[in-house]
């Protein structure tokens, strides 16, 4: 039975008074609610037996039964069959029963003698809950299927982030590694292997190149798999990157591991030439600590590939130690994700300032004054601000003023960072004021809509009128006005009711209809809750 195509349900009626159950089975139109089977039980123990035998979806049970009470039955049902929804039926209209029932997960609470309309309402609500749970289960299964399908890409992304130096809190990284089924732990001793497929492979189309990468990866896994745990992916330059560690337990001889790994990667280098008729360049890094040293290991491997191999092909290089630092280094942190542009685009003003402070700290490791570094940072800052201004359909000069933009000479990194922070504060203030003005304009439009259509006014009605989602309308109205849109509509209706009572001879039911209340008794109840007296009493006091 495929419940997602058509929801077919089965129900169990439980009451020690047999005639109650028998009459209810016959008198109520269960089929109207998609219930094709009605079971009956005359005690809690019998009900539990039937629940074990049949695929019951809903239980309607009396509370007061000899032996096992309805509450005890519900407690057992929820303990063993949590998907089953329970509705309590009782002659005791007391809150304590209802409160205790709620603790056991009862979805509805009905009072004898049973009103069929109330039962209809309770069943509709219960079935709606069941449908939502089925949909959630289906959504979860679909999400898990999508997760499994995208797992290789997720592993690739995480590896790319780590070799680029992205830092994760230790517990979060552990969770990701476990969730992605990656058998590496923080502080593991690892090596990095960088592989570049050479011209023979890249002359083919993209699909063929991906097949060659797959073949090279398979060869690597066959050669390294017996002795090493591996995690592989691609970098931004379409090179293959492998992180490897010994799969030997306990203390291991690092020299022995390096010798074995060097031998295996030599085999990989020659096997690709032999089996695929094409060359690869392979860089084997020095050992490092996972994930702390990954960025340095990757960058040194990239540097060796760029400087020692260059445009030549088919090389194997083993790095014995970290590369010596040059006095001229690229400002990698300046381009790290999230970029300056992304921070502005997503309104992360404080994050932008923190990135600028990182630039200030970075300056301590740079020459005392380097015009090229300062110009590089200034250009990046200015470019990000031009982008966000133009995205807001404005000129940057109109948003922050010419005075800030005309400042171009900076004699220190500190001066440059202070200028960037001033740009952030000025732009943030301007854009937030514009946003607030826009929000106030939308709320005024909502209020005008309510005033002109007071009888029909509701959250959905107003949302349709201003072409916005009801949830956003609710949140925006509360943020700007300080009260919910429902409260505002009620207040306006009550103000209009008072005016009609004071200034007109309209009858109470006419005022009720004028304000959109189909039931005048409900209008009287709402008015009394608001003013402490009925509309008639209020008019009498005028």
UniProtKB/TrEMBL annotation:
Cross-referenced CDD domains:
REC_YesN-like
- Database matches in InterPro entries: CheY-like_superfamily (IPR011006), Homeodomain-like_sf (IPR009057), HptR (IPR051552), HTH_AraC (IPR018060), HTH_AraC-typ_CS (IPR018062), Sig_transdc_resp-reg_receiver (IPR001789), Tscrpt_reg_AraC-type_HTH (IPR020449)
Q: Where are the 4-aspartylphosphate modifications?
A: 62
Name all Response regulatory domain ranges. 10-127
Instruction: Keyword check for Cytoplasm, yes or no.
Output: yes
The cross-references to Pfam families, in alphabetical order and at most eight, read: HTH_18, Response_reg
Using the record's annotation, list all stretches that form the HTH araC/xylS-type domain: 444-541
- Compartments, as annotated in UniProt: Cytoplasm
Which keywords label this protein?
Cytoplasm, DNA-binding, Phosphoprotein, Transcription, Transcription regulation, Two-component regulatory system
Q: Which PANTHER family match?
A: HISTIDINE KINASE-RELATED (PTHR42713), TRANSCRIPTIONAL REGULATORY PROTEIN HPTR (PTHR42713:SF3)
Supply the name of the protein.
Answer: Response regulator
